[in-house]
Amino acid sequence: MPDMRFDRTSENDPEKDKDLRQQRDRFVAFSFASSDLFLEVDEHDRISYALGAGRGLLGVEDKDLTGMNWLDVFAPIDRPTVVAMRSRAKPVKRCGPILVKLDESLGESKSVIITGIRMPQSETFYVTLAHTSILTARAGMTQREIEERELLDRDSFINVAREALNTARSIGTDVDLTLLDLGDTETARETWGEDRWQAMTETITGFLRSKSVDGNTAAEITEGRYSIVHDREIDGEYLREQIEVLSQETDPDGHGLRIAGKTVTSDLASLSDREATKALIYTINEFERKGTALNIQTLNSGFKAYVSANAQKITQFKSIIKQLSFNLHFQPIVNMQNYEAAHFEMLTRFSGDGSTAEWIAFGEDIGLASEFDMAVVERVLNYLLYKSPGRRSKFAVNISGQSIQSDIFCDDFYRKMKTNAETLSERLIFEITESSMIENLDMVNNQILALQRLGYKICLDDFGAGAASFQYLQRLHVDYVKIDGSYTRRLIKSERDSAMIKNLIRMCHDLNVKTVVEMIEEADQAYMLKHMGADYGQGYLFSPARPKPEYTPPKNLHFKE
Length: 561
Hints:
45% helix, Beta-Lactamase
């Protein structure tokens, strides 16, 4: 953003002064058409200049913002996000838009869209803040580069569509999924010729991308079969008709293709994020197999069809719960200062078909997470009371975000923990997994406080995997957070992820919350995390999960100390 100080006029050239004032007025008008407040941030994170609606957005006059740390403008939960935004800024390349909240002491927790840019040969960072709407909120929450030419493939579409559905849910807007089948593409391709066919598919690509919710949520699932997530205001039949017209214009005989279309309503309010994802995957798989003949009208009916198709697997999972037919394995959680084991995470392992992660996810999908978690608790109590009664080793046990919101589960769980608190409270940490499922934060926090009063410690798993994690940290009074391993994987090669972890650790320490960083696989990762101040680490570098709680620190961890 150019310098906003427009007081530099010429004393000797009135016409030039007039032109400069006109350029200034135009620039200011254009700028305020898209943003409400402009901040110039120096290399020390201080606001060196402010212009715009400071009082309207923050309740502070523009001039009073000068000298403030720019991070103080934003809510604490969003400060790591804006730090990462600045750290990845490249000269003359816009960062954002990103949706964040203002600090409640200034902006009453209003949501705004921020965009930033750094100019060449300067450390000054120029930031714009704007009020939000549905359109800008969607743009701000979508932090991915939009490719300009190609449609997504099947797997990429599922990931991007899932994000679009979650965004739509969070801002209360409606979207639909439309599936389009071009039919006999092989005959048309041979008849029309390769050049005409390619020209038509390129036109279809541009058309579908332009109608998708964010310019990117459209895909070619298989040849001639397309999918698109779009605003509900766009009629699926309109999309089908337009592509049919495109095919007629391409066909030398003017007949074109008979396009089949089907629109699946999202009905997001009736589904959890995980259920919507499963329904989406099942719907796309059915489309791939059957085309638009699939019998799915809504994502809700798609999820029901998914459950019905897995009836035998449900019976098998219920049998696993009833018979406690799974094993416990132990993975060390290591103190990052001396690489000694602080405690062990107790993990379940299934025998037979399917991975353990798949079985657990399946149980959550079909609403049996609470029953499975209680079965795990029974095994854990049996182990600690009868197989390891005299040892002082500490252990962490996973509890699903779905279970911790169940009154029936929590009542039974609390009774068991209260009965054994004197013996086990200093030996058990409970990790709340799948925290994205948590909707009733106040209820969950009450459960956490009740367990803490008995002496147990609580950890929030998968922290940092989504924007909601910061809200959870603010509302849930946990003792530990486990930082999502996706950041660890990219730690060494990505300055952005390095900055994210560093600021997450610092923020947690400010709140007196211990940090556990997972998926540590390389000595360099351990070294960096130690010097960032991470309290604990977990991963294959130290040890995989084993049948017994045994651990010997790897010798190669001391080579840089």
